[in-house]
Each structure stands twice: as structure tokens, then as C-alpha cells.
Amino acid sequence: MTFKLGNIIFSVAFLSIGFYFLIDTFQIQNLVSGNDVGPRAFPLLVAIGLIIFSGINLMTSIFEKNIEKLKFQNFTKVVLTMVGLVIFLILISAFNFYIASIIMIPILLWINDVRKVTRLGFSTVITIAFIFVVFDFLLGIPIP
């Protein structure tokens, strides 16, 4: 497969996802009357952004003259990361998000060649603290 063909396939896929989100976004009821931002504002922005950038990528890929063979490097890392994310979802349902994150963040970093224990621990603590502060503390949204 060439790089151009891969870009075209993924651009069409993300365009389809963007249009699906756009259609679903218009089904969200605005609870606020007037000019205030309602609950559909953020999903609408994401859907429009996805459509615009996928369309730009599709157009540049179609008119690109350079045909380069697509090389799959680090295929084992990609597969291990995908398996790790599936395990992460299972751990979230078995325990909770924070315990699953304490287990999975260091494993995913290890897969991606982060070998220093201090960096693994520091990255895990900072990530979980950031998620807790933003969602639980600032937004008031409890993480399952």
C-alpha cells in the first residue's frame, strides 16, 4: 500500500465519522435559549473540525504526485499498545479509572521505550493528578 492510498482511506473514514458526529450533534437539544453556548457547542466544533481537516487531507492526498511506499515500522509496539488499551478498558470496568491508570500508564510508557523508573513514576503521578484536578475538582465530573 502506498502512503497516498493510506491517506485517502483514512481521510474518507474520518470524513464519515465527522458527518456521523455532525448528524448526532444536531439531535442534542439546546437547553439554553438565546445566544448562550449550549450543550451541543463542543461536539459541533469537534465534528466541523474533523470534517474540515479530513477534507483538506483528502484533497492534498488526491492531488499529491509523490507516490511513496508505506513502511510499517515498530509494528510490535503498535500491536502491544492496542492490546494494552484493550486491557486498560477491562481494568477500568474491573476496578476504576485511577487504579487502571496506575497500572497501565507505566506499561504503555515501557512499551514505548521509557525505561527510567523515576520518569515512569513521575509521568504516572502527574497524569493522574492532572486528570483528577481537571475533571473532579474543576469541572465536578467524577471519573468512574
TrEMBL record:
DUF1468 domain mapped to chain residues: 9-144
Transmembrane stretches, start-end: 5-23, 43-63, 75-108, 120-141
State the organism of origin: Ureibacillus chungkukjangi
Q: Does the keyword Amino-acid biosynthesis apply?
A: no
One matching Pfam family is TctB
> Would you tell me the protein name for this molecule?
Tripartite tricarboxylate transporter TctB family protein
Keywords in alphabetical order: Membrane, Transmembrane, Transmembrane helix
